[in-house]
Amino acid sequence: MELLRRPVDAVPAPDTEIFAIGHERPAVGDYLALYAAVGGPVQWDQRSRMPLPELQRLIANDSTVLFVLRLEAQPVGMCELLNADGSDIELANFGLVPAAQGRGLGAHFLNAALRTAWSASTRRVWLRTDTNDHPRAIPAYERAGFRIYARGVETFPD
């Protein structure tokens, strides 16, 4: 899926939640804990299989931007952008822990992260989604302005 323009309108924040959205550079252990909490239910495993030095370099890289959604200071969501200082940005990981889903936080979080990350040089933000993702992932991305630009089938060894 791809987004070819900066989101123009802000998505209203739910008024029943006290939350914060920030750009963070967590330690590897904190990153992996949030990655597992968000991605475990939908079988994310790419980052947990990376060698730790490689993951440390990814997190520390200036072109990697990680937005974290916090409820009452606890991390409950992540939006990871790669090549964030370029014109073609990858939304590598986005999601909320199951307990934070269905409360209107995701749409606001995604919109806020995209609006913050979009710069004058940005031409496109793209992402991959798959059949393991949350059933509401594609509709949520479409509401955010993403459109499907390609479909494919990938197989992986067991």
In short:
The protein is of the alpha+beta class and 158 residues long. 28% of the residues lie in helices and 23% in strands.
Keywords:
about 160 residues; alpha+beta; about 25% strand; Aminopeptidase; single chain; six-stranded mixed sheet
Describe what this molecule looks like in 3D:
This protein has 158 residues and is an alpha+beta fold. It has a single domain (2-143), classed as Aminopeptidase. The protein contains five helices and six strands; from the N terminus they run ββαααβββαβα. It has helices spanning 28-39, 46-49, 52-60, 105-117, 137-143; strands at residues 2-3, 19-24, 65-71, 74-82, 88-96, 124-126. A six-stranded mixed beta sheet has the order 1-6-5-4-3-2, with helices on both faces. A hairpin with a 5-residue loop joins β4 (74-82) and β5 (88-96). It is globular and about 40 Å long. The two termini are 26 Å apart.
Estimated share of beta-strand residues: 15-25%
Separate helix tally = 5
Structural class: alpha+beta
The CATH topology comes to Aminopeptidase
Radius of gyration: 15 Å
Largest sheet: 6 strands, mixed
CATH class: Alpha Beta
* Order of helix and strand elements from N to C terminus: EEHHHEEEHEH
Mean of pLDDT: 91
Question: How many structural units, i.e. domains?
Answer: 1
Corresponding CATH architecture:
3-Layer(aba) Sandwich
Choose one word for the global shape: globular
Distance between the termini: 26 Å
Number of strands: 6
Considering the protein shown, what is the CATH homologous superfamily? Gcn5-related N-acetyltransferase (GNAT)
Unreliable stretches: none
